[in-house]
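Entry details:
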Amino acid sequence: MDDVASQFIAANETAIQLTVALLLGALIGIERGWVARGKKSGERVAGIRTHSLVGLLGGIAALLAETVTVWILPLAFLAVALIALVAYRARMEQSQDYSITGLVGLLLTFCFGAVAVAVDLVLATACAVVTAVVLDNKQEIHGLLNKLQAHELDAGLKLLLISAVMLPLLPNRGMGPGEVLNPYEIWWLVVLIASISFVGYFAIRVGGTEKGILFTGLFAGLSSSTALTLHFARQSRRNPVLSPMLAAGILLACGTMFPRILLYATVISPGLVPQLLLPIALMGLTLYVPALVIWYRQRQALKVDHPLSQNPLELRVALLFGALLALIMVLGEWLRELLGEAGIYLLAASSGLADVDAITLSLSRMSLTTIDASTAVLGIIIAAAVNNLVKAGMAITVGTPPVGRRVAVPMLLSLVVGLTVAWLV
């Protein structure tokens, strides 16, 4: 049966491609026709029929370009563009509407038909759907743009600069003592910290104080709870009234770190999971439960939104944190070389000063070859405990006293519980 279907598709591939080109044009045409549904027949420059035919024309032009001459496709595109320009100019003189969105949509429809035949059906379909969504959400997009402030746009462009421009240019290889300094990975952490502050700012602005803080905490827990702790601790200084909810966000992010550790171990070395599950679960619960209690008690106090920090992108803090990470990596390598390969636990502790992901991945791999499972489990727990201790210190020193108290106590409890259970198991 599958062979028959494959033969049918192969025999009718061109017809299927042209049909898709026609349907993609109809998709754009439906949206355009809906927008202009109040106009009389003939007043619309291009509706569902015109867009459908333009999509089909793009497909036929691409087909002829393959079989006759490559010049047919660009000439057909220019012909459609000239006809559309004449029509839209005439309408502009009558309606005084200077928007060229409809013109661009019509030209894209031609391109989608050509892509469906000459390049890839799935790509053409995806582009057409995205175009239809953009065209259909004019009011929403303009509304968001009107709400955007100058410093927010500036922050977004800076984030794109450090992530899309600078990050790919950095070498992704080890340098320095023991080749522990990887410029790409260090800058990636800088981007991550900056991104968390950016996402947190807009999450609070869009979803409100309560939902925004909790969402940001969960988001950061899936990436970098250390960066979130630093950001929320600083925010508590600027908005002391938010200290309880910010503490709940920190605990939520730090608790979410433990399922992430378990996931890494499951993927790389499933044999670690039975010994790792109990201490990891208990350490996570000792943070989740206080976070939920704080949220439940403080949620009524956040019905009224509070002023936000005016800096959506904590770039200076991210750069300082990246420099600190590089220093810790160098010190950790020096300690490892000083004590030799037997210093697994010291290496785990020094790695946990900055991050738990790298040491979790390393020990999980090592458990398959060079160290036993119990050593790897205890090393991972030590790294997580030290990392929580560092974050508790951040909350105490950088944040307000209420944030420090609410974060430090569960963190210390999590540390004691995790180390005790890991040692006994």
